[in-house]
Amino acid sequence: MSQAGSGLRLHALEVLDAPIRTVRQVSLARADGFARLGITTVRDLLEHLPHRYIDFRQLCLVKELQSGVEATVLGTVMEIHIKTPRPKLSILEVAISDDAGGVLVGIWYNQDYMKDQFAPGDRVAFAGIPKFEFGMMQIRRPFVEKLDSEYDALSLNRIFPVHRCTEGLTTNWIRKIVSNALSEGIYVPDYLPARIRIARQLMSRGQAFQSAHFPQDQEALLAAKKRFVYDELLCLQLGLAMRRHRLGHNRVGYPHTIDGPFVRRLPDLLSFALTSGQKEAIGEILGDMADTKPMNRMLVGDVGTGKTLVAAQALAAAVDSGKQAAIMAPTEVLANQYRISLGHLFDQLGIEWALLTGSTPKAQKEEVLQKVADGRIDVLLGTHSVIGPGVKFCDLTLAIVDEQHRFGVNQRLGLRNKGAAVDLLVMSATPIPRSLALTFYGDLAVSYLKERPGNRGDLHVKTECIPKSRRNQAYKAIRQAVAQGRQAYIICPLVEEQAKSDSRSALKEVQRLKASVFPDLRLGILTGRMRPIEKSDVMERFRAGTIDVLVATTVVEVGVDVPNATVMIVEDAERFGLAQLHQLRGRIGRGEHPGLFFAFADPRTSAGRTRMKALESSTDGFFLAQKDLELRGHGHLFGERQSGLPELRFASLTDDADLVEIARNDTLSIIQEDPELMDPVHRPLSVEVKQRFGSAWKWVSSG
Fold first, then answer.
1. What share of the chain is helix, strand, coil (3-state, %, to 5)?
2. Which of 182, 569, 619, 661 is 20 to 30 Å from 702 by CA-CA measure?
3. Are 401 and 424 in contact (CB under 8 A)?
């Protein structure tokens, strides 16, 4: 396309940013109503797509209605009544008669003002889920469309859009205003290059808005959705790909030595051989570290696959190179686990290391900070304390962030910015499905660990999802385990009791268990609200075997390694996602003895029952993460990563997995050809990407 053509599209983008008041029939009062919906510009209006549709091509007669099956009935208003069976309760009943004489009643509670919308003889459509009750077919709070001659012509025999509305701004008015905007000749620019639109058989953006707001048929509606889904995925992946490109070109990395003595000796200290997956991941990470471009990689591993040992090799390479490294954990419990696992290895290798957390005594902290500053500490282990303003490294070249989804962008960058040329490795104990990794982690190279080391093999844990009424069965298993010298966990979703919640709290549960269930056993409690020194003391006693049963919250979800623990109970398991339950399950069966995992659950929904069944049937974290993605959506799987990134309003990472791959391929092609989107053909696309990223664009452009 010529530069002139590109300029026209850029100008049209600005037209879309015109105030909503520029659209015909938008008064000040209506503009206020739109503002309450977050709509202030023409673009906002067009992107306020219907949240549901009513297909007037498939009207039902009352006699054809089925209870619980959504339907639409066209009829004439016959009667309007308001009943007040008791104080503070009014019931509005509007009866309509269809063309065959069938009667359907619409019901509204405490909404007397609705009666003003109806008059006997009005032609209306009721849409909703009918139910046969009290001898009549009725719909509670039906969607209502009042029809006159104009709207009969417009609405019948077509798919009818229903927009989310607000006080003083009905869905009818929103539909009318959208129609005004689309009919007034506003040019909707298309930022997609024509070659992509043609190759991917996509509607133009203008066609997509028209078909989404006023679809002629189901095919047009699906085509519009495809365009919106593709746009979301492409723009998000383009932004992340641009960041990845800039990381490689705007920053300089330090070329580490990757075959030094520490790297060579470390595997010999292990009592088992590294898995092929660990070797592959180590090779990818060390390859990045040897490059002059900075590493920006994520290590994703299932429970028990040995991420810490892979990280240890990266840390060893930094020290082999005469540099410093740091690893940051989200909790003191996990940081203390580093002290045990990594500290033991580093002591044997002669690597100088230190632990820095919020509970580090002042005098010890000052000593650690001084040694870090003058280079006497090779590896610093810790929590967010390692990014504190007082921490100054002599020569940091490797930063590792564990459980990265629990940290915000600024915290992750805070560790990287502690050095001039720092490689970044982020780790996730939550397996991430491919579609999610491609979409939200496109700025990172990804290494996967799926195989467990030889000392662990498969996850030898039997899982039983049982109703709470069978808890004595689980208590018996705990008693048997303790009698054999083993230990157990009991996990509660809450620290303290909450009003209007019947979920078990750790504080109350430990008291109950001590009093009436395990009075003869040694019980301990661990919650996130305890002081760090208290948490450390409890975990040390549990590791030492002086606590038989640890009652805890999910603070033990990640990083806790007590091989002697073989039984776990999770109270109110339906409150947790699959990925989290799998992480908790990974705390047992880590030694030579198999584990037994009880999930107390009385799921009331189909999705809840599906989650429990999946947990019982599989110990594959990647399978369970995919199932969690299908059941609960991507937001539960990557937490902080979503913060600031463009929202996925239309795309489903499961239903639209094929478009994820297509958008990924197109992203790679565009970035390879024009990494900064400077070509006139790509400039409108660049504007759109920046607009979607909003304030996060600074993070993208910083590289």
1. 45, 20, 35
2. 661
3. yes
CA angle 470, 473, 477 (to 5 degrees): 150
Q: Are 221 and 199 in contact (CB under 8 A)?
A: no
What DSSP designation does 55 have? E
Ramachandran category for residue 685: left, alpha or beta (phi over 0 → left; psi -120 to 50 → alpha): alpha
Tens digit of each residue's pLDDT (9 = 90 or more) over 384-406: 899 988 999 999 999 999 876 66
Crossing angle, helix 621-632 and helix 606-617, to 10 degrees? 180
Q: Which of 145, 442, 450, 414 is nearest to 281 (CA)?
A: 450
Retrieve residue 242's tokens.
Answer: 């641009």
The identity of residue 258, as a single letter, is: I
Q: Where are the beta strands (DSSP E) in 87-185?
A: 89-97, 103-109, 123-128, 131-133, 136-140, 143-147, 159-162
Residue 394 has φ and ψ, to the nearest 5°, of -75, -45
Rounded to whole angstroms, the Cα distance separating 265 from 473 reads 48
Say if residues 66 and 104 touch (Cβ distance below 8 Å).
Answer: no
Q: How far apart are CA 69 and CA 57, in angstroms?
A: 17
Name the pairing type of β-strands 396-401 and 324-328: parallel
Residue 206, sorted as left (phi over 0), alpha (psi -120 to 50) or beta, turns out to be: alpha
pLDDT tens for residues 443-482?
889 999 988 876 555 568 899 999 988 989 999 999 999 9
Structure-token match 């385990």, residue found? 481
Provide the b/e sequence for 521-547 (b: ≥16 CB within 10 Å).
bbbbbbbeebebeebbebbeebbeeeb
Strand order of the sheet with strand 445-449? 353-356, 379-382, 324-328, 396-401, 423-428, 296-301, 445-449
Structure tokens at 433: 């499905």
Identify the helix (H) or strand (E) that includes residue 595: strand 595-600
Positive or negative torsion for Cα 543, 544, 545, 550: negative
pLDDT of residue 417: 82
Q: How many secondary structure helices (H) and strands (E) does the chain include?
A: 25, 22
Residue 127 bridge partners (DSSP): 72, 143
Burial class (CB within 10 angstroms; exposed 0-12, middle 13-18, buried 19+) of 643 = exposed
Contact at 8 Å (CB) between 57 and 157? yes
Whole-number Å distance between alpha carbons of 470 and 489 = 17
**pLDDT 10s digits, 336-364:** 989 999 999 999 999 999 999 988 999 99
- Give the strands of the sheet with 131-133, arranged side by side: 131-133, 136-140, 103-109, 89-97, 71-86, 123-128, 143-147
Question: Do 504 and 493 meet the contact criterion of CB atoms below 8 Å apart?
Answer: yes
Neighbours of 691 (CB within 10 A): 16
**Phi, psi dihedrals of residue 27, rounded to the nearest 5°:** -80, 175
Confidence tier at 635 by pLDDT (50, 70, 90): low
CB count, 10 Å around CB of 74? 21
Highest mean pLDDT among 151-155, 630-634, 674-678: 674-678
For residue 159, the SS3 value is strand
Is the torsion defined by CA of 107, 113, 119, 124 positive or negative?
negative
Q: How far is CA 460 from CA 140, 356, 597, 600, in A?
A: 51, 34, 10, 20
Element (H, E) at 482: helix 471-483
Residue 224: other Cβ atoms inside 10 A = 23
